């Protein structure tokens, strides 16, 4: 995996400054603003907003239905129409506790390296968040996602997914789907 200094160099070279346009929080093509979140990220938003778990997230929409099993992996922030439920005009109402995906957009790191999503904020001057901070957050996000994925894989491998009812599998376990 790329090191933080080499990621920072790539980010600096790309040039990025958030324009606070809110475009990444709106659906510009199907599923473009699906924000996947893990249990810890949801807890932080619950604490910050006093909203309930169900008011903040819904199950990831792509379900896997096979044999007698019906399940999906994890949660996404609820949306109102084509917008994230926390987008107010062009302002994020949960900015201090925004999820990793939002914190690191338009950059994404996976086992294949750095991906840069199309974004109006790229290609110019670097903004107030310096490239080193973004690179560190990308590495933290990658570690968090790896940890979540490993926990979920362990649950799937254990073969304890109940048959005959829809469930959600996240890093904490198996949860009932309530619609
Ligand atoms: S949580 Fe905030 S930054 Fe993330 S998509 Fe929603 S409004 Fe945008």
Walk across the major sheet and give the strand order: 3-4-12-13
Q: Would you count the extended β strands for me? A: 13
Overall geometry comes to: globular
Which percent band covers the strand fraction? 15-25%
- In whole angstroms, the N-to-C terminal distance is 38 Å
Oligomer: single chain
- Helix count, per DSSP? 5
Mean pLDDT: 93
Q: Which small molecules are bound? A: iron/sulfur cluster
Question: In this structure, how is the largest beta sheet organized?
Answer: 4 strands, mixed
Helix fraction bin: 25-40%
What string, H for helix and E for strand, traces the elements in order? HEHHEEEEEEEEHEEHEE
Radius of gyration: 17 Å
Note poorly predicted spans. Answer: none
- Structural category: alpha+beta
**How many domain modules?**
1
What does this structure look like?
With 179 residues, the chain is an alpha+beta fold. The protein has one domain (4-167). It is 33% helix and 23% strand. The chain is built from five helices and 13 strands. The chain has helices at residues 4-14, 39-49, 53-56, 100-104, 131-158; strands spanning 36-37, 57-59, 64-66, 69-73, 75-77, 79-80, 83-84, 87-88, 91-92, 107-110, 113-116, 166-170, 173-176. A four-stranded mixed beta sheet has the order 3-4-12-13, with helices on one face. It has a three-stranded antiparallel beta sheet with strand order 1-5-2. Strand 10 and strand 11 form a beta hairpin. Helix 1 (4-14) packs across helix 5 (131-158). The longest helix has 28 residues, at 131-158. The model has no long low-confidence stretch (mean pLDDT 93). Iron/sulfur cluster (SF4) binds next to loops. Iron/sulfur cluster binds at residues 25, 33, 35, 77, 84, 86-87, 92, 94, 98-99, 102.
């Amino acid at each position: 995996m790329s090191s933080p200094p080499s990621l920072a160099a790539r980010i600096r070279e790309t040039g990025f400054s958030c324009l606070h346009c809110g475009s990444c929080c709106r659906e510009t093509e199907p599923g473009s603003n699906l924000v996947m979140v893990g249990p810890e990220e949801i807890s932080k938003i619950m604490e910050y907003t006093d909203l309930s778990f169900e008011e903040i997230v819904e199950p990831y929409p792509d379900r896997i239905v096979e044999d007698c099993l019906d399940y999906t992996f994890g949660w996404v922030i609820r949306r109102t129409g084509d917008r994230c439920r926390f987008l107010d005009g062009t302002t994020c109402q949960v900015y201090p506790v925004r999820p990793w995906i939002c914190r690191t957009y338009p950059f994404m790191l996976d086992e294949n390296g750095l991906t840069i999503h199309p974004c109006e904020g790229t290609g110019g001057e670097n903004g107030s968040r310096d490239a080193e901070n973004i690179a560190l957050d990308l590495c933290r996000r990658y570690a968090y996602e790896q940890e979540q994925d490993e926990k979920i894989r362990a649950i799937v491998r254990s073969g304890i997914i109940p048959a005959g009812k829809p469930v959600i599998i996240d890093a904490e376990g198996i949860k009932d789907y309530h619609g």
